[in-house]
Backbone:
């Protein structure tokens, strides 16, 4: 590592040139990476709802649909709008009454099934089928064009429309997220650093790993919009520590050496050693998300773990080159740091460790109990602004047709028409089901599906399956809909053991069941991974317990607060926050414990060592924690997407709580439990000095 460090220092201009050149493939890779806006596609493929979704996509071309409510529009204008919409690239079909019967017939003369399916009190319904899945670029572009073709008193709703709304909103807000994160972080760094130029160099240094991370996402095939929106902010907040550690070590080495290049080489070696454990715990925390059955966790986990690893590499290569290149300017623009060392706080903490721990324990207990009772919602559309086109259109479907959620039911093609009608009748009797229909049922007497155009007949039967559409008055993700789906599934399986039910509601139900299991798995995996890394780093049985318990108590407080404020959290936030807060802020605990051990090895008492560790680590922890807070709180303040707002608010609040726990509570634990730590840690006070009898024989002969 020493040779590599000297090489980086001597060839710093070459390092910077290579770093800039690598941005070219990174930018190309980032531009070519597909962004997925449909969270439900991350469900395990073996589920009935996903198997049904595949059949809808491959056989019926119904995996992506939109529904248009038209209120009080003249027939000629309606048919004209329908014809225009059918010409939009990416639209497979716009299905309406005119596709199966003469629309000029008076409404009261139409078969009852058609009246119920196609008409509300003062509205009619059109179904838009897209050529590709909802989250595809083709469908997104088609929806955007269809919005422009909507006439007055026509509204478009459904999953495909809402996903396109989500894309448009994320694309609009993403630059603001980055500006807020960078601006707020710079403000904190200007207060924390002793040079005005250093924060700018830090941001330039972090720009490289962030862009490299985006570029290498190309090899993953796609990433979710949640990952895209959060990765920059999280990577900025999580890896800023490394830059701060390098600079502090460089400043320390400059006091010992007049050669700046040698000082930086030494700083690189020591920083790489010190941030290895910190980065590994952070990486392990993110990789724990890969244990989720919902593969969205793997998406976030791999991208963020990769980002941290790239952050480490760039911190010991690109950042030293930048600092040395602009060293004179850094020295020229020095000022006094505003964020201080907490000397008085450290003295107070080490004088009253017992009472402080007792008060903290009393505070933590109710939050620990409350965090398991915090309300969680799974209907991700609730986290979107309610004035979006798709949300308004979906609400219109509910008002005019009692259609809040649509279920797609697939049964065997050999099921007779009589059995099919019986099943539809049974499903209509389920509470909350407003309508059940199949295309064959809508046809007038004497008509068969063979007499229909091919694209319309495909809605009745395809790929060895028959299709039934059922509309529900209940919202996805609610207990009422879950109970409804279970009852419907029982009726379907009784009629056809191979029958499946799919659609947004069924997939959301599966999402709820999987998320509850994933939450437990991710927490266990992240704690176990971080525990093991700390155990190997400190070679201690007690230190991992103290550090993990400290951070977990901060997580419990963070997750318990929404219960007392009556705030609902999106399900993904409750899963992700535990691993993010643990992986990102356990670095503070490792820093504190490492300094405490160093001071004990110098001969200081537990109280003195705790006081010194608290005082001298507080500035670094405050700088890092406040930067992490600043990078995420801005996004929480400006985002119109409740999902991203909730996640960023939890992360920013978690950074502050963890910072407080590590500065105030951990020194108390280290001080009071020093005896336990000493007896459960290998060489806690340093390796014992060898006596003459223990020295090799060759040494005794030399001294003889």
Residues:
């Amino acid at each position: 590592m020493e040779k590599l460090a000297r090489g980086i220092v001597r060839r710093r201009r070459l390092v910077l040139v290579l770093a800039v050149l690598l941005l070219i493939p990174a930018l190309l890779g980032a531009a070519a990476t597909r962004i997925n806006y449909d969270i439900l596609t991350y469900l395990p493929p073996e589920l009935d709802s996903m198997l049904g979704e595949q059949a809808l996509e491959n056989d019926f071309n119904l995996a992506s649909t939109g529904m248009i409510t038209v209120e009080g529009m003249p027939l000629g204008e309606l048919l004209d709008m329908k014809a225009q919409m059918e010409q939009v690239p990416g639209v497979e079909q716009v299905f309406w009454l005119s596709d199966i019967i003469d629309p000029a017939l008076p409404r009261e003369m139409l078969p009852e099934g058609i009246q119920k399916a196609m008409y509300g009190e003062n509205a009619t319904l059109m179904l838009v089928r897209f050529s590709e899945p909802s989250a595809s670029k083709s469908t997104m572009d088609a929806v955007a064009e269809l919005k422009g073709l909507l006439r007055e008193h026509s509204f478009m709703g459904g999953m495909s429309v809402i996903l396109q709304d989500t894309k448009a909103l994320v694309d609009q807000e993403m630059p603001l997220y980055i500006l807020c994160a960078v601006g707020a972080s710079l403000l904190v760094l200007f207060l924390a650093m002793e040079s005005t130029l250093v924060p700018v160099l830090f941001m330039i240094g972090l720009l490289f790993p962030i862009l490299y991370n985006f570029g290498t996402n190309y090899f993953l095939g796609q990433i979710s919009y949640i990952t895209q929106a959060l990765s920059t902010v999280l990577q900025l907040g999580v890896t800023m520590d490394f830059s701060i550690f390098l600079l502090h070590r460089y400043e320390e080495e400059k006091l010992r050496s007049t050669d700046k290049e040698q000082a930086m080489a030494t700083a690189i070696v020591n920083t790489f050693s010190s941030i290895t454990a910190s980065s590994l715990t952070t990486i392990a925390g993110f990789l724990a998300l890969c244990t989720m059955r919902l593969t969205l966790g793997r998406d976030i986990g791999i991208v963020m773990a990769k980002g941290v690893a790239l952050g480490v590499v760039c911190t010991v290569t690109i950042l030293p080159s930048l600092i040395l290149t602009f060293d004179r300017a850094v020295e020229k623009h020095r000022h006094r740091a505003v964020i201080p060392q907490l000397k008085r706080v450290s003295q107070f903490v080490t004088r009253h460790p017992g009472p402080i721990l007792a008060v903290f324990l009393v505070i933590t207990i109710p939050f620990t109990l409350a965090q398991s009772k915090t309300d969680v919602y799974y209907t991700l559309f609730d986290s979107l602004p309610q004035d979006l086109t798709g949300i308004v259109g979906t609400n219109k479907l509910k008002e005019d047709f009692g259609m809040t959620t649509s279920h797609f039911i697939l049964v065997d093609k050999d099921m007779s028409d009589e059995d099919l009608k019986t099943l539809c009748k049974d499903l209509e009797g389920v509470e909350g089901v407003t309508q059940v229909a199949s295309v064959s049922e809508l046809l007038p007497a004497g008509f068969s599906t063979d007499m229909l155009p091919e694209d319309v007949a495909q809605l009745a039967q395809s790929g060895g399956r028959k299709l039934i559409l059922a509309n529900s008055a209940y919202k996805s993700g609610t207990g009422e809909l879950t109970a409804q789906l279970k009852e419907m599934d029982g009726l379907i399986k009784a009629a056809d053991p191979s029958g499946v039910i799919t659609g947004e509601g069924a997939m959301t139900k599966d999402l709820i069941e999987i998320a509850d299991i994933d939450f437990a798995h991710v927490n266990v995996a992240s704690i176990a991974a971080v525990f093991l890394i700390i155990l190997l780093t400190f070679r201690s049985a007690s230190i991992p317990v103290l550090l993990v318990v400290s951070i977990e108590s901060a997580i419990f407080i963070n997750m318990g607060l929404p219960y007392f404020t009556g705030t609902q959290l999106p399900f993904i936030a409750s899963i992700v926050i535990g691993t993010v807060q643990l992986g990102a802020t356990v670095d503070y605990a490792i820093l504190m414990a490492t300094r405490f051990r160093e001071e004990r090895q110098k001969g200081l008492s537990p109280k003195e060592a705790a006081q010194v560790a608290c005082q001298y680590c507080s500035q670094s922890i405050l700088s890092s924690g406040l930067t992490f807070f600043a990078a995420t709180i801005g996004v929480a303040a400006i985002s119109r997407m409740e999902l991203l707002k909730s996640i960023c608010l939890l992360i920013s609040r978690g950074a502050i709580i963890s910072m407080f726990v590590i500065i105030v509570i951990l020194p108390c634990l280290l001080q009071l439990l020093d005896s336990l730590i000493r007896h459960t840690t290998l060489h806690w006070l340093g390796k014992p000095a060898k006596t003459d009898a223990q020295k090799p024989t060759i040494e005794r002969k030399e001294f003889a």
Summary: The longest strand covers residues 123-130. Residues 357 and 483 are 46 Å apart (CA to CA). The radius of gyration is 31 Å.
